[in-house]
Structure formats: C-alpha cells, structure tokens
Amino acid sequence: MSGKPIRVLVAKPGLDGHDRGAKVIAQALRDAGMEVIYTGLRQTPDQIVGAALQEDVDVVALSCLSGAHMHLFPAVVKGLRQQNAGDILVLGGGIIPEEDIPDLKEKGIAEIFTPGTSTVSVVNYIKGKIAQ
C-alpha cells in the first residue's frame, strides 16, 4: 500500500439504532493507524455505497444488530459491484447467527465478526487482507 493508510468506512445499515460496537471498532481501527469514516446510524445500502465511493475506501465494515443482515449486507456488496468497486473489502459484524455466515460469505462478505471477537483480530484481519 506504499505507506498510504488503510481507509475504512464503518457503517450501520438499516434501522438498527445501537452503535456502541461500531464506535469501538472505529476507535480500534484509528488506534491501529487506519483512516476511519463513520457514517452514523440508519444508512441505506445505497448511501453506504455512495459514501464508500466518495471516500475512496479500501474496506467497508458493516454492523447490524437488528437481524436484517441477510438483506442489507449483500445489498451493499451488490451496489459496490454495480459501481465497479467490487474490489472493496466488505466485512460484517454484529449479532449474526452462525448458520447465516456461510451464505453471507457466498454473497461476497469477506468475513463476519461476532460478539466477543477482539478488536486486535479485526485489525489484523484487515491489515492482512489489504497487504495481499
């Protein structure tokens, strides 16, 4: 990446109004030297895609606690692909049932981080993937 900091968009799609976890992740990524853009609550997939393109990010990190992840996460991936930005790494986190994870990965979510995952694990995953 030639010394350029990794740029991450942290987003809360849908009607979920709980953002403490997203803010914890955003702070951990900042502390690790990444540039973080936080979109705030209640974003549509289209708004997230638009922000990702405008901010020229390397990673989109989605957080969902409402149970709508099976609809919202793939919609973001689809929107990025439609805008020729399918190379942006898309991650998901939140209350995601284990049985949903394989389907989400099949639909283009690179990795899912569930409650209890250490912030160090998230940081290391992103750094490892972007270094590839």
Short description:
This protein is α/β, with parallel strands linked by helices.
What's the CATH topology name? Rossmann fold
Label the overall shape.
Answer: globular
Distance between the termini: 9 Å
Q: Can you count the helices?
A: 5
How is the main sheet built?
Answer: 5 strands, parallel
Low-confidence stretches at least 5 residues in length (pLDDT < 50)?
A: none
GO molecular function, one term: metal ion binding
InterPro entries: Acid_CoA_mut_C, Cobalamin-bd, Cobalamin-bd_sf
Keywords: Cobalamin, Cobalt, Isomerase, Metal-binding
Domain B12-binding: 5-132
Question: What features would you describe in this structure?
Answer:
The longest helix is centred in the middle third of the chain and has 14 residues, at 69-82. It contains five helices and five strands, in the order βαβαβαβαβα. α1 crosses α5 and α2 crosses α3. The protein has a single domain (7-131), classed as 3-Layer(aba) Sandwich (Rossmann fold), CATH 3.40.50.280. The protein is of the alpha/beta class and 132 residues long. A five-stranded parallel beta sheet has the order 2-1-3-4-5, with helices on both faces.
Write the layout of secondary structure elements.
Elements: E1 7-11, H1 20-31, E2 35-38, H2 45-55, E3 59-64, H3 69-82, E4 89-94, H4 101-106, E5 111-113, H5 119-131
Parallel strand pairs: 1-2, 1-3, 3-4, 4-5
Cofactor: adenosylcob(III)alamin
Keywords: Cobalamin, Cobalt, Isomerase, Metal-binding
Domain B12-binding: 5-132
